[in-house]
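Internal QA ticket QA-208
Title: Verify multi-chain structure generation after dependency bump
Assignee: T.L.

Test input:
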Amino acid sequence: DAGVIQSPRHEVTEMGQEVTLRCKPISGHNSLFWYRQTMMRGLELLIYFNNNVPIDDSGMPEDRFSAKMPNASFSTLKIQPSEPRDSAVYFCASSSGQTLRFGQGTRLTVV
Amino acid sequence: GENVEQHPSTLSVQEGDSAVIKCTYSDSASNYFPWYKQELGKRPQLIIDIRSNVGEKKDQRIAVTLNKTAKHFSLHITETQPEDSAVYFCAASQTGGGADGLTFGKGTHLIIQP
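Actual output:
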């Protein structure tokens, strides 16, 4: 399979701008996860979906963050407005119940 | 919720020696414990996992042990090689054994000295 596909790979944006990160999970996987990785906090689960339905969004840091999964093959994570402290690597991952497979990640820099 | 503690944060070993990374978890209901390896600038990748009905699992040079009573599990790498240098993450699942709700440890940076 092509694996989990994320875009863009790198994003540099100015504080206050809207940022949208995109993810295509592995076909047939029914769970999708968004993680944020920083040196200070490690890998944090932001939100996950089962069969396109958000199950747990308790990790979403604030109302500035939102995620959608309109269909089984696409998800977005949006930050509006972005702030410098949102700078991190954002990983999307998918699974069919056991192994979690990660995408390449999006390195976000907010200046 | 689940809390996973991982130690040490950095581990330096001589090439050929063994490396051991330890994790503890708080939720006695957790029953799935994977280990991920993340090379610099790359994505985390699963290297081995264990379920709570098994005490030990081996795959070539890597092994994982689980002590449910003490709620800790460990990763053992024998005959370390330069390509083992990476950050290793342990994780625990709060639910029925799947990937849902995986909580990760903070990671261990393993450095293999030539």
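Spot checks passed. Chain A is about 0% helix and 55% strand.
Status: verified.
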